[in-house]
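anyone else get weird line breaks when pasting these?? whatever heres mine. first is seq + tokens for prot A
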Amino acid sequence: MLTKRIIPCLDIKNGRTVKGVNFLDLKDAGDPVELAKKYSDEGADELVFLDISATEEDRKTLIDLVRKVGETINIPFTVGGGISSVNDVEILLKNGADKVSINSSAVKNPQLINDLASAFGSQCIVVAIDAKQINGNWKVHLVGGKIATEIDLFDWAKEVENRGAGEILFTSMDNDGTKNGFANEALAKLSQTINIPIIASGGAGTIQHFTDAFLVGNADAALAASVFHFQEISIQDLKKELKNNNIQIRL
């Protein structure tokens, strides 16, 4: 059995880490470089850095900030936000990123997934999918959740896999920031639909929620933000409890 992963997420806006609820009401959560170092030191398995306003503001990712974070940590580092070309990815990888996450740009131009996987290898390409339930069906949303589409979550996940993505980061917009738990039914269905690793995102509030994401949702990794940023859960306590539940985890 593959080791499960715990991944803190830094949502970046105006150079600061922010966190909201259901993608709204963003609050300041601290300096991204300091938080990144803290999580790396505390035993996080990976770190995700999402420049959440890059697409909306039609600009590229904050390269200087990416470089500073990359120099500070010694764990795998995924960067997303404003990526729309092979050249964008090349620049990020040269400045400290180990993987990149694409979202809206992949929906608008699915061939981008093929091109990036071909240029850099599937292991380097994460496709982030933000989705919420509309009339009982999970629909993909773009531009930080602001634009709804008619695209079905599970159909899109399968296409993403077929085009060469190495991993999917699925955020339930319904669960995001609520601290009521991950969208485990959708996660379990995703894990039956695709064969690449799934990172669960949106809804972490307790250690039990992480346990459920792995045992019920069958996720390969669990990503969270506010419970780590505001010190409600420590990564070491979380990992010890997961180990006690016979979940394979790196302590």
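and prot B, same format (seq, then tokens)
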Amino acid sequence: MKSPVMLATSIVFAVSISAFASEGWLVDFEKAKAEATAQKKAILMDFTGSDWCTWCIRLRKEVFDTQNFKKAAPKDFVLLELDYPQDQAKVPEAIREQNEKLQQIYAITGYPTILLADAAGRPFARTGYEKGGPEEYLKHLDELKKNLEKRDAAFTKAAAVAGIEKAKALKEGLDVVPEEMVAAHYKSTLDEIKALDTTDSLGFEAKFGFVQAMRDHRANLKSKLEQGGEAVRAEADKFVSEHPKLSAKQKQQALLDVLNFLMPPKDNATALKLAEDVKALDPESEEGKMAEKIRAQVEKMSGK
């Protein structure tokens, strides 16, 4: 039996933690998974910068803090707030450490990022700020939640078959999950498909081999950041040269990742050159157009 002092301390700690969470939201990832399992719900994870991110603040004001959202969303989701404020005193140290780990695990590079995940923490959809208020946002979440239903239906089908048919059903389940999430969070399923489809007739190894390589590439880029923009760019060029079968689009993706690390004021000159090189590979692609927008933004911020 806990002593009165221990019990009082536990209560104070629980109250202090809950005081940092928005109404109706948890901040503890393990508790969110436990509640999602017990209640058979998905988890809505809000990666936010509550005191500096304009779009995060708008999303909370226009959607999350409204009565319509507070009433409807908890029927389907356990709500988890993962905050990265400038004022770190707003988040307890234990939760801050947790959030830093989750930022890496889920490869969060922008805010707000909203992930929908199953009770085990495996994501099945990603979104962010959307215009239209709570009603439109709830409809948007309903559509995204269908990814989980389709995934699980396909996985159930896979359990009833064998061989290449099982591989196809597993692939069908993963096809509804955003590609960048598959390699990081569905490795066991990918390994099973690979074992069942030894000739890679479904093309999964070729497809997600690149995705996994990109994850390693990002980690290498981050390790070079302290050495300056030229070192980061050299690491990207090395990656491209080591993967000669990359398509133009894949090369653009690999180089665009560098820009996430070099945006002003880190190294404007390298960022400008990189944006030009990305655009040159294919000006009309989504990546080429993004590079042009970044180039224009860097020039503006550089005073050119």
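btw re prot B: The CA atoms of residues 158 and 166 lie 5 Å apart. The chain has two domains: 19-147, 208-302.
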